[in-house]
Amino acid sequence: MDPKTLYRRKLLSIPDAVALVQSRQIIGAAMAAAEPTGLLSALDSQAERVEDVTVCVCLPLRQYDFILKPEMAGHFYVENWFYGAPDRQVHPQGRVSYIPNNLHQAASAKLHATRNHLDIFFGTVTPPDRHGYMSLGLSLVIERQLMAAADLVILEVNERIPWTLGDTQVHISEVSHVVESAIPPYELPSAAADETDRLIGGYIAELIEDGATIQLGIGGIPNAITAFLMERHDLGVHTEMFTTGMVDLYEAGVITNRRKTLWPGKMVGAFALGTQKLYDFIDRNLAVEFQQGRVTNDPYVIGKNYKMVSVNTALQVDVYGQICSQSIGPRHFSGTGGQLDTHRGAQLSAGGRGIIALRSTAKNGAISTIVPMLTPGAEVTVPSQDVDTIVTEYGVAELRGRSVRERLKALTAIAHPDFRGWLQEEAERLGIVPSLPWLRHAGQGVMVQGGIVCP
Ligand code: COA
Questions:
Q1: What CATH code is carried by the domain that includes residue 83?
Q2: Residue 129: predicted pLDDT
Q3: Which class for 246: exposed (0-12), middle (13-18), buried (19 or more C-beta within 10 A)?
């Protein structure tokens, strides 16, 4: 059958498509800026008809009633491996729960738990070309695997979705139904860097050599450092998330991908989240390669890049070097995402480095983010045995292969000056390091660059 006829036969209205949902089904949805906004916005309309429907999402960006409305209890339950603002809000009401995992395993881990089966997959695609092929557009992290496992595949066709290249093509014959929508994809504005971001960005830029391949994570700091990389030459990109800052670096001739050892000449990633500038840039751009998250984030794949540098951010680090990036104490905040994948992968690379950058304080300077021990209940995102390089506005601490005593010194030197004495005293009081005066001064200043030497 010709693709146009096939498309017309599969076309449903959004209300008719959500009316296919049945009680006790499991639905998987495309993530982040690829979220099927029309379908997810209409899901709550089925609440009176269905019970116990589980919707598996990741980083929902818009305010969906099926997540937010208290009366959805008993009708829709949300499972999410990376919380956004709505999930944090609803979590105390018990209608959303976190799925711990690593990005490269996210789809398979979820499918393992459902015996490799989903009832429905909701995704987004571009309109089809004349051969009936569509592009999965803004995310390929989990979408292809979830699609393959679903009985019913319903895709939201939207002209505003960029046609991305790589492993993104889906044929209309692979789809159960299509619906149409014209809602623009969510835009994440680039936050302006403040003085602290600028200091951190400067230190990180010193750690990224010409010819390196970079991954930049989610959050204010990774975004802010792009401005500091403008003096570098021939950088490459192997990331999970394409960002607007990467477009600035590409247009400035800093990112050329010329010296990459894996996918030379191409920026490689699994999803895009940024402004319209980014979405225009990735549209039919042969320099941009989308691959599934199980490929981009496999640490052994990442490690094949020469001089791979990952830059992620965190909420807390303790003197052992345990990194918490996903919870504030026991209160779940976001998710592991690909932080551990990329941090490990960078260290497997020849000349590579895993960087965790964070401000030395939070809550307007009231608390130190470098702590003697993580707040009870905090989730560990990067274990101490995997940690590599920590950066704050006070400098760089290299922890890899160092003892806890040396880690304490290095981290104290990059902690905010108001908390340095407290860190040492607490580490001694808790017995993490012995309280011996000569030990305090042994080896001071080693492996700290830029930072003020530990008193
Ligand atoms: N104790 C208590 N609260 C803290 C804190 C601490 N140590 N550190 C930060 N906070 C608070 C901030 O004050 C802020 O609160 P607010 O929302 O009320 O303003 C909130 O936590 C978020 O901090 P912020 O620095 O604005 O976060 P961010 O947007 O830069 O994101 C992470 C930082 C760590 C949450 C984010 O990068 C993340 O989720 N990472 C994990 C996943 C990852 O890195 N994946 C790989 C790349 S995609």
A1: 3.40.1080.10
A2: 97
A3: buried
In the predicted model, is pLDDT for residue 449 greater than 90?
no
Please give the distance, rounded to the nearest whole angstrom, from the Cα atom of residue 325 to the centre of ligand 1. Answer: 7
The structural domain count of the chain equals 2
Is 453 a residue whose pLDDT tops 60? Answer: no
Same domain, 21 and 88: yes
Closest residue by CA, ligand 1 atom 8: 315
- Token couple for 142: 């989990």
Alpha-carbon dihedral 352, 221, 203, 319, rounded to 10 degrees: -80
pLDDT for 445: 45
Over the stretch 368-391, which tens digit does the pLDDT of each residue have?
999 999 999 999 999 999 999 999
Confidence label for 452 from pLDDT (cuts 50, 70 and 90): very low
Which of 313, 327, 333, 411 should be mutated for ligand 1, with most atoms under 8 A from CB? 313
Q: Which domain holds residue 63?
A: 3-180
Q: Same domain, yes or no, for 347 and 387? A: yes
Residue 102 domain-assigned (yes or no)? yes
Average pLDDT score over the chain: 94
Nearest residue (by CA) to ligand 1, atom 28, is: 219
Q: Are 136 and 45 in contact (CB under 8 A)?
A: no
Ligand 1 nearest-atom number relative to CA 241? 48
What CA–CA distance (Å, rounded) separates 223 from 226?
Answer: 6
Known catalytic membership, residue 425: no
pLDDT tens for residues 234-267? 999 999 999 999 999 999 999 999 999 999 999 9
Q: Are 52 and 77 in contact (CB under 8 A)?
A: yes
219 lines ligand 1 (CB under 6 A): yes
Considering 240, 289, 379, 406, which one is annotated as catalytic? 240
